[in-house]
């Protein structure tokens, strides 16, 4: 609606792959394009979250710029959306501190993300002495910063993947704790928007998700890959020895992954109506003489169309005006985000007595 505020964040992991794109970023672009005049959208590159794990300074700086340029390249528009680095807007950490004074340790202790980074089971009871010694405070309190990110912009709608639902629930908990403690209504309850998009799997090991953390570059498609690169990676994708196209995700994960990518690209095959066909419908459109090579060629073509113009725009953003252009965009985003956060912080300080 007119006064809705959308907030979403992504880690500065460098150039996004098509899993990031279909799973998150394309949704941002669609929300932006569908937003009515007056709606506000904030897309934040969360570099403070990134440093909960060790980073190399030089590489982090580079990955931040790559992510920023990628968001521009997929069509986020700095006139309509506020795109910014978290660490440029100090109010995020200021609110984090204030929220952490009313947030419960017990609740954080039950959250699963820090446990998975510590290689504990999700249902591990939590902080015994040994775990507490190894656990960094920032990783433990990460959800409080995430809550501050959202609440400082008074976000009403937060698109998240399944894995982040728990954190959104914690943000809502932070709102009730704060508003109750200070007898105010100044923080706004955010609403979750969950989007169901399939996991895109590794092109090499279709039982694992496509991920930046794999050292094998050809296991993924980056959104800045050009057609020849896309083609060679798709042609090299691991499939199986049955040279026909069927939809059988259980037994044929490699083939299913290609069909998923085709479906995400809006490929409709021979189905009438165009666009939006399911994987099964797409598979059914292939005849008994069509081979996996045909499927791969179609997948590479569909990706080329989906990502048309992205590599060029990406390089243009990074190199325009000798690097000054991206700097201007970053400053512009930071200014807008700062103005938005400032309003909330005035109300928060007023409520607390600061
Ligand atoms: P990575 O595993 O490459 O480091 P992240 O964990 O940083 O990716 O995820 C960033 C966003 O992209 C999240 O919203 C996540 O759900 C989405 N995402 C990441 N990998 C995939 C994938 N293989 N398929 C679908 N969505 C994905
Ligand atoms: Na990850």
Compact description:
This protein has 354 residues and is mostly helical. The protein has helices at residues 18-34, 47-50, 57-73, 91-100, 105-110, 113-117, 129-134, 137-151, 165-181, 227-235, 253-264, 279-284, 292-306, 310-319, 324-352, and strands spanning 5-10, 40-45, 81-85, 157-160, 191-194. The site of adenosine-5'-diphosphate (ADP) has 16 residues, from helix 1.
List keywords for this structure.
354 residues; mainly alpha; two-stranded parallel sheet; 15 helices; 5 strands; globular; binds adenosine-5'-diphosphate
Helix content: 40-55%
Order of neighbouring strands in the sheet with most strands: 1-2-3
Overall mean pLDDT: 94
**Radius of gyration, Cα only, in angstroms?**
22 Å
The biggest sheet amounts to:
3 strands, parallel
Q: Topology of this structure?
A:
Layout: E1 5-10, H1 18-34, E2 40-45, H2 47-50, H3 57-73, E3 81-85, H4 91-100, H5 105-110, H6 113-117, H7 129-134, H8 137-151, E4 157-160, H9 165-181, E5 191-194, H10 227-235, H11 253-264, H12 279-284, H13 292-306, H14 310-319, H15 324-352
Parallel strand pairs: 1-2, 2-3, 4-5
Helix pairs in contact: 3-14, 4-8, 8-9, 10-13, 11-13
Bound molecules: adenosine-5'-diphosphate (ADP) and sodium ion (NA).
Would you mind describing this structure in some detail?
With 354 residues, the protein is mainly α. 50% of the residues lie in helices and 7% in strands. It contains 15 helices and five strands. It has helices at residues 18-34, 47-50, 57-73, 91-100, 105-110, 113-117, 129-134, 137-151, 165-181, 227-235, 253-264, 279-284, 292-306, 310-319, 324-352, and strands at 5-10, 40-45, 81-85, 157-160, 191-194. The strands form two sheets. The protein has a three-stranded parallel beta sheet. Strands 4-5 form a two-stranded parallel ribbon. Strand 4, helix 9 (165-181) and strand 5 form a beta-alpha-beta unit. Helix 8 (137-151) crosses helix 9. The protein is globular, with a radius of gyration of 22 Å. It starts with a strand and ends with a helix. The model has no long low-confidence stretch (mean pLDDT 94). The structure holds adenosine-5'-diphosphate and sodium ion. Adenosine-5'-diphosphate binds at residues 10-11, 13, 19-20, 22-24, 161, 199-200, 209-213.
């Amino acid at each position: 609606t007119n006064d809705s505020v959308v907030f979403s964040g992504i880690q500065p992991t460098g150039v996004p792959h098509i899993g990031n794109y279909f799973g998150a970023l394309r949704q941002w672009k669609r929300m932006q394009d569908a937003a009515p005049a007056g709606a506000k959208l904030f897309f934040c590159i969360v570099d403070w979250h990134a440093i909960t794990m060790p980073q190399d300074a030089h590489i982090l700086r580079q990955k931040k710029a790559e992510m920023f340029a990628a968001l521009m390249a997929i069509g986020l528009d700095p006139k309509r959306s506020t795109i910014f680095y978290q660490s440029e807007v100090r109010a995020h950490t200021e609110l984090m501190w204030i929220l952490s004074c009313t947030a419960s340790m017990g609740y954080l202790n039950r959250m699963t993300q820090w446990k998975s980074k510590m290689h504990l089971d999700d249902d591990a009871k939590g902080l015994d002495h040994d775990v507490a010694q190894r656990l960094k405070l920032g990783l433990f309190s990460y959800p409080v910063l995430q809550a501050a990110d959202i609440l400082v912009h008074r976000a009403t709608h937060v698109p998240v993947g399944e894995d982040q639902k728990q954190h959104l629930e914690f943000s809502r908990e932070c709102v009730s704790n704060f508003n109750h403690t200070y007898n105010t209504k100044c923080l706004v309850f955010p609403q979750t928007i969950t989007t169901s998009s399939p996991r895109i799997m590794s092109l090499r090991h279709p039982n694992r998700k496509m991920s930046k953390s794999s050292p094998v570059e050809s296991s993924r498609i980056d959104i800045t890959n050009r057609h020849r690169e896309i083609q060679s990676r798709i042609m090299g994708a691991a499939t199986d020895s049955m040279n026909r196209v069927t939809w059988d995700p259980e037994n044929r994960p490699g083939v299913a992954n290609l069909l998923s990518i085709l479906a995400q690209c809006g490929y409709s095959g021979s189905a009438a109506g165009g666009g939006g066909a399911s994987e099964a419908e797409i598979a059914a459109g292939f005849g008994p003489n069509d081979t996996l090579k045909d499927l791969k060629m179609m997948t590479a073509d569909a990706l080329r169309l989906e990502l048309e113009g992205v590599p060029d725009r990406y390089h243009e953003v990074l190199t325009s005006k000798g690097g000054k252009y991206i700097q201007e965009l970053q400053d512009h985003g930071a200014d807008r985000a700062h103005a938005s956060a400032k309003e909330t912080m005035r109300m928060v300080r007023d409520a607390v007595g600061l």
